[in-house]
Amino acid sequence: MAPGPAPVWLSDASDGAWSRELAIGDFVHGLELARDGQLLAVAGYASARLWCLPAFVDETPADP
User: What gap in Å lies between CA 11 and CA 17, rounded to an integer?
Assistant: First the structure.
């Protein structure tokens, strides 16, 4: 069986703490998606439903 989409991690922009993975259909409330330690702002959306995961491959964030 083929693997599912890579996880996309959610970070609270106020402190950068990693909270949980996003899944298809999740709501995004003014937070940011993260890829390899770089934060990608979810700009222009107060609340947006994640209909499909981004095409990039994401890894579990490493502890500092």
Answer: 6
Apex 19 CA angle, 39 and 26, nearest 5: 80
Give the model confidence (pLDDT) of 4-34 as tens digits. 444 555 554 455 554 556 655 555 554 455 4
Summarize pLDDT for 35-45 with one digit per residue, the tens. 444 444 444 43
Q: Read out DSSP for 3-56?
A: --PPPEEEE-TTT--EEEEE-TT-EE-S-EEEETTEEEE-TT-SSEE--S--SS
Cα angle: 32, vertex 48, 17; to 5 degrees:
25
Q: Phi/psi at 59 (nearest 5 deg)?
A: -115, 160
